[in-house]
Amino acid sequence: GNSVTQMEGPVTLSEEAFLTINCTYTATGYPSLFWYVQYPGEGLQLLLKATKADDKGSNKGFEATYRKETTSFHLEKGSVQVSDSAVYFCALSDGGSQGNLIFGKGTKLSVKP
Amino acid sequence: DAMVIQNPRYQVTQFGKPVTLSCSQTLNHNVMYWYQQKSSQAPKLLFHYYDKDFNNEADTPDNFQSRRPNTSFCFLDIRSPGLGDAAMYLCATSREKARGETQYFGPGTRLLVL
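The joint structure predicted for all components is written out below.
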């Protein structure tokens, strides 16, 4: 079945450090891939997405590239800020799941000043 | 701004006392979803509506039900809440059911069961 595996947290970084959160997936079809962010006490917000191989999603300085050959969608940011502290969820959807999202377990990021 | 609204943000109920959570949307989306999210876990899909068609996930307990009286509103009913039902409940919408469609989430309702 379809699944998403993302790196365990928590991840603690200093402000302006480089961020990578790894995400790999297993899918029988040809999925779309998403990163959602959840700030404390809030719902999820779409951060970025990619719908086909080699697409790069980007938003607010975050980037992720859909790598079909490695079944990966790693999230990166060159210089994190304290305001980036949140939980980040990698997710996929494909035709087989009728568009339903399958989430990874989430990675909590804490950025220290 | 178009958005997904959930009320209340915090709900306290007693063990076994029915409770209803509400969600409304101004996006005019066809699909509305309900998720349960427990502490430090990923959201778990309970069910969704595509227009008026209800789709229940196989492992959603019978204790959870939903109503969608019109396009804009969707309700989550918990008939007899147990302590294990304490969680954040997230409503989401999407324009269609297809790969690549973005889901838009509300802020959630945090349910406490005493």
